[in-house]
């Protein structure tokens, strides 16, 4: 029987293919590193969006929008909004996912609180803030999702729908984001909402393109 050289035992291609098929669990160190990187992406993205006076999609967008109305830090609002979603995650996605997501949420909150002493943006072009800030938030969400965690809020619901119903998390998020952007019209000028729409699109595009069922099997 003729063998495909690329599928021979011991070849790099066969090892990668086997790992992609059966799923190689992440180590604790890998999970910790990925979660730190994911949180860092989200935090920097939020700082850029806040500096430009924009919002975005998901729980991050809700927190940003609320911060323009209430005299509370973005991080504090982020945590408060997330509490009911973490309870939902515990009963629907399991304790492991809920604990990881809670850690990620508090990590983002504490990092945002430390940002004024660490990273201060005096000026940022709204186009740059929308595209780069939204993309960084999306990359952070993706990194966390691939290691069994979420940033909380609507992201938990979309990941649950993808796992249980096979509905792409990014596509679901687009519908939620559209609702948040429409609500922001009551608070922000139309021009800022338009830039915010770009940030939400950039964020969701990362998840739509790279978080497809079956594409990534590590846990």
Structure, described:
- The protein has one domain (29-210).
- 70% of the residues lie in helices and 0% in strands.
- The chain has nine helices and no strands.
- Helix 6 (126-145) runs parallel beside helix 9 (190-210).
- It is globular.
- One of its GO terms (cellular component) is plasma membrane.
- Its main location: membrane.
- It is a multi-pass membrane protein.
- InterPro entries: UPF0750_membrane, YitT.
Largest beta-sheet details: none
Question: What series of H and E elements makes up the topology?
Answer: HHHHHHHHH
Overall pLDDT score: 81
Would you count the extended β strands for me?
Answer: 0
Please state the overall shape, judged from the principal axes of the Cα atoms. Answer: globular
| Helicity, as a percent range | 55-70%
Helix segment tally: 9
Give the N-terminus to C-terminus distance in angstroms. Answer: 35 Å
C-alpha Rg (nearest Å): 19 Å
Query: Number of folding domains?
Result: 1
Structural class of the secondary elements? mainly alpha
Give the low-pLDDT segments. 1-22
Instruction: Give the strand content.
Output: under 5%
